[in-house]
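Batch job 17 of 40 flagged for manual review because the log was empty.
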Amino acid sequence: MIYVIYVQSGREHDVVAALRDKNINACAPTHELSERHKGVWRTVRRIIFQGYVFIRSERITDEIYYAVKNTAGVVRFLGRPPAPLPKAEEVRLRWILDTENLTVSRGYINRNKVTITEGLLKGREHCIVKYSRRRKRCTLYCEINSRRHYFDVAAELDKI
């Protein structure tokens, strides 16, 4: 099961490292993006869900709860008492959480239809909300606790 905790924005990696030191399976998925700075394109790594860290555990025991709660940077668990993500949402998020670092996807656009030929977005074209050719990014969505969250993923698409 996957549990979600709110953390202070910008402290996601610190919280994940601290939780892993306490033998808690935690992750904060990242993705590689192409950004242009002073006219030069470079690849940078960014957190997908800012302010969220995901914990995999069969259940939250008192020991795990207090170990997480007393970690610097943790705000609170999602849900009271801590409740795992519903199965449907967990299945939709599993491909992101299993990868932990999404890389650049490649494909093409033909008559306003996006087709991904390589990368992690292959077969997930239905999740793409929009594509910015100038920024080289696709905007996707997923649901966490019945709330829709949008995030950008790097994609280089050619127009046919």
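Reviewer: the log was empty due to a logging misconfiguration, but the result itself is present. The mean pLDDT is 83. Unflagging and moving on to job 18.
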